[in-house]
Amino acid sequence: MTALPKVFAAIDVRDLDRATELAAQLAAAGVGLKFGLEFFVAHGAAGVERARPAGAPLFLDLKLHDIPATVEGAVASAIETLEPDFLTVHSSGGPAMLTAAMKAARGSRTKILGVTVLTSLDDSDLDAVGQKAPVLDQVVRLARTGLHAELDGFICAPTDAATLRATIGRAPILMVPGIRPAWAADAGDQKRVLTPAQAIALGADHLVIGRPLTQAADPAAAARKVLAELAA
Ligand SMILES: O=c1ccn([C@@H]2O[C@H](COP(=O)(O)O)[C@@H](O)[C@H]2O)c(=O)[nH]1
């Protein structure tokens, strides 16, 4: 089996031609492709098939969160149409929903990743929705629930990675967004961020990077720069 790339580029654009162009440039630079809600709501699985260069590693970031039967059906549909390398569900959907997602993925090559606490949230945001702070405790709590349901891995912030690794061990996959290279303009709506090298050093297996690549003057050059920084 070919190893999956360290970095996945988030193709968070609505225009199909622009997404296709970005996907071609970024895949050629050696990163995988992540299609999420903005693109998927506009273009669906057919759009992903059109925008994705043949064979490019695919992360379908749908962050599914619903009753168990609905999530089981949605995971089955995603695998039937696209068979992505990775697919996300929200770990906060609860044990039965997570078990249903894993049931639908059984026998496929798709790895199911549980989103713990979004990288755009901090302690005060958790408080506002009635969840117990600190964020890190909630991340660990949700990962434990996910482990019980035998999820393949988790989405967490780079600032959570070391604690989560120490809790869950080496085997589960850690896919980490909230990445900002030192040369990136700003964090935007992300609240828990670190650089690519810091995230890998703390235990991330894969990184998700969106705007620092897609909004760069030369997205492929920006992706190559990140990969060179990681190699160094
Ligand atoms: O906790 C999460 C889960 C998913 N994401 C997704 O990653 C990218 C990040 O994009 P940037 O432009 O690098 O901020 C985006 O597609 C999110 O939906 C996340 O950021 N945090």
TrEMBL record:
Role description: Catalyzes the decarboxylation of orotidine 5'-monophosphate (OMP) to uridine 5'-monophosphate (UMP).
Gene designation: pyrF
Record GO biological process: 'de novo' pyrimidine nucleobase biosynthetic process; 'de novo' UMP biosynthetic process
Residues in Orotidine 5'-phosphate decarboxylase domain copies: 6-226
Reactions catalysed according to its record: orotidine 5'-phosphate + H(+) = UMP + CO2
Pathway linked to the protein: Pyrimidine metabolism; UMP biosynthesis via de novo pathway; UMP from orotate: step 2/2
Keyword Oxidoreductase assigned: no
Name used for this protein in its record: Orotidine 5'-phosphate decarboxylase
